[in-house]
Each structure stands twice: as structure tokens, then as C-alpha cells.
Amino acid sequence: MAEVQKNTLAGENVAHFIQFLMMQQQQTLLALGAHPNPPAGAPPANYALAKALLDQLGAIEERTRGNLSADEQNLFSTVMTNLRNAYGQKVRGVS
After folding, report:
1. pLDDT surpassing 90 at residue 2
2. 23-35 burial, b if ≥16 CB within 10 A, otherwise e?
3. Looking at residue 87, what is its pLDDT?
4. What whole-number distance in Å separates Cα of residue 24 and Cα of residue 57?
5. pTM (2 decimals)?
6. For the chain, which residues make up each domain, given as ranges?
7. Could you tell me if residue 66 is left (phi over 0), alpha (psi between -120 and 50 degrees) or otherwise beta?
8. With contact defined as beta carbons under 8 Å apart, do 53 and 24 qualify?
9. Integer angstrom CA distances of residue 5 from 18, 42, 94
10. Are 31 and 87 contacting, i.e. CB atoms less than 8 angstroms apart?
């Protein structure tokens, strides 16, 4: 059985979690073709990839429910709401 390692760097873990959310948000927006500042040579929109990223984030959201601080939960909820809205607009053809 794997050992659970205790980490006393709670602030660092929070920063990593927020960074993870922001990176996933950027990747999903790129996959949707909805990134406000896409990099040069960005690939075309890939809605299947965007859906997969959203589904993964949704699973993480469900699995972390009750384990996040209020600020972390608010950020996660905001990210998910924004991404779900962007996805819905793109697949419906609304710009």
C-alpha cells in the first residue's frame, strides 16, 4: 500500500493547484479557438479535445468537492462556468 506523504508546504500546494486550473483553462480555450491571445501558429479549434478537457476538469471538481478552501472552490466554479459557457457558445455557433 502506498504511503501518504505529509506536506508542510500548504501554500505551495495552493499555488500549484491554482496554476493547474489556469493552465487547464488556457488549454481548453485554445482547443475551443476562444483564447483571447492565441500563440502564433495555434492549431485550429478542436471541440472534441475541449470536451475531453472539460470532462477531466469536471471529474476533478467532483472528486475535490468538500476538500477545497472557499477561495479555491470559488475559483474552480468560476473557471468551470466560464469554460462551459464558452464551449456551449462555440458548439452552437455563437461568437
Report:
1. no
2. ebbeebbbbbbbb
3. 96
4. 8
5. 0.82
6. 45-95
7. left
8. yes
9. 21, 39, 47
10. no
